[in-house]
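User: Please write out a complete single-protein record containing the residue sequence and its fold in token form, without commentary.

AI:
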Amino acid sequence: MSSEYVFPPEPQPSVPVRGSRQRYAVSRIFCVGRNYAAHAREMGGDPDREPPFYFTKPANALVPSGATIPYPPGTQNYHYEMELVVAIGAPVFKVTPEAAKAAVWGYAAGLDMTRRDLQNEAKKTGRPWDTGKGFENAAVITELVRASDCGPLDKGAITLAVNGVEKQRGDLSDLIWSVAEVVANLSQFYHLKAGDLIYTGTPEGVGPVVPGDVITGQIEGLAELSLTIGAPE
């Protein structure tokens, strides 16, 4: 049987949806840098003057909560970052924050896993962050909860623990740029559409993990997140 493809396409990246057999197909993953004031300071930024900025991860970097993933190659400083994830459900381009609210289809809890040493080296040399942020298994995510089921998530605790010891604690109300503001700002640069995920930033307390560590995270109203770090490949 002939095919129009030289090689079979990879499976479509997708995320489960609470209470549904359907899945949310993912096309792009955007991430907001330093969107909590305390984390901005711990990373050397100034939250009072810095506008939102973004980096991306490939959609095939997604890994479901509950997985065991290998410690990634090329790093000696592998960090967790607990984040609220927003799923877009309607096309938006150059919209206001008020209009952006209607484009939010759902929410999940996620981890922006980071090869911090590679990211820091890229910062020093003015090079892209791709090897530090956009690698395999770098975007962990729970099931999505529809915004129509949970309402807007503009407040509520966001926490992370490693091996049962709490490392991060913040509140969604501490976001420098709210979900609506992030979506509106990002829409000034991209035609956002259904299939786009936005990781909205992490509270202070980021740090390293090693093989054997178990990460757990929680955002009020969403599924608990878990991830086990396996041995290097």
Observations:
- The mean pLDDT is 94.
- The longest strand covers residues 104-112.
- The CA atoms of residues 60 and 109 lie 17 Å apart.
- The chain has six helices and 18 strands.
